[in-house]
Design a protein that fits this description.
alpha+beta; Deoxyribonuclease I, Chain A
């Protein structure tokens, strides 16, 4: 299904965040007629690695494993674009650990600073940072009541059934230890309009943040927000999107050629939620 969804978009470059099965990556690349690079050689659900697939010639690749990037190494792949010039694509996956609250946010801030340090040698060269940042951009919101429904496996009216979805996270993964005495109240919240309203209104107090503004301050462009200043762009979880945590950041040299950036819920009649627990973010550069 992943190959079918990707093929329907005719991409030149694909970044995969949780590429936990090397064989699947190899098979998808073969179906799409692409070369690929992996950030590791693990296998199974515990393998924290990413992949880049490219229709353009791959000229170089790098894997950055540091004490700061604890979730997944930073994969960088340099391809030769049609104009003959290089473009480097980085794939990142930042810390989740939502139950650790401010400590997890602090870790994500450190990770963003490390990403900037790793990309600094490229200077004015064209490059793109993509991935799952497990953080909401400052000023943006999430739908906390819907997220709680998702975790509890409930189906809100008008939303797709969660049957067959990847296992939702447990409350213990999201709720800090000191607040777990509220677990019974949280389980009842989706049935209460008042509690649901509170969850949606107070999301700045609990929604994961952490350092994304540093990328903007460094000159990188949030591709989706540049194209859609008002749309929410929710990308996760795929079956019941409640927040935007998946991003494409274009370097100052690449950003002027951005034409399109969208979160894709369906492609050629196929729900993209059948291929991943995150909705894909798709962008086009050049030839607007």
């Amino acid at each position: 299904m992943l190959a079918k969804v990707l093929a329907s978009r005719h991409p030149d470059i694909v970044g995969l965040v949780e590429a936990s099965d090397n064989q699947v990556v190899e098979e998808v690349a073969a179906i799409l007629g692409m070369d690929y690079r992996l950030s590791g050689h693990g296998q199974g659900s515990e393998a924290q690695q990413s992949a880049v697939l490219s229709r353009f010639p791959i000229r170089a690749s790098s894997i950055s494993k540091t004490a700061v990037l604890t979730k997944q190494p930073l994969l960088g792949v340099t391809v030769e674009a049609p104009d003959g010039q290089p473009v480097t694509v980085f794939v990142a996956h930042l810390t989740a650990a939502f139950s650790r609250s401010w400590r997890a946010n602090l870790q994500r801030r450190r990770e963003v600073q490390e990403l900037l340090r790793q990309m600094a040698p490229l200077g004015l060269e064209r490059h793109l940072l993509k991935g799952d940042f497990n953080a909401i951009f400052p000023g943006e919101r999430i739908k906390g009541s819907l997220f709680l429904r998702y975790m509890l496996g409930q189906r809100p009216a008008g939303q797709p059934c969660l049957d067959g979805a990847l296992q939702p996270p447990k409350l213990e993964f999201v709720v800090p230890g000191l607040l777990r005495f509220l677990a019974s109240s949280l389980r009842a919240a989706p049935k209460s309009r008042v509690l649901s309203w509170l969850l949606d209104s107070l999301d700045p107090l609990y929604a994961p943040r952490g350092g994304l503004e540093a990328l903007i301050q460094a000159g990188y462009v949030d591709c989706f927000r540049a194209q859609h200043p008002q749309q929410p762009g929710f990308s996760w979880p795929a079956l019941l999107p409640v927040g935007r945590i998946d991003y494409l950041f274009a370097s100052p040299a690449l950003a002027p050629s951005l034409c399109v950036c969208d979160v894709i819920a369906e492609s050629d009649g196929v729900p993209t939620s059948q291929a991943s627990d995150h909705l894909p973010v798709f962008a086009t550069f050049g030839g607007c």
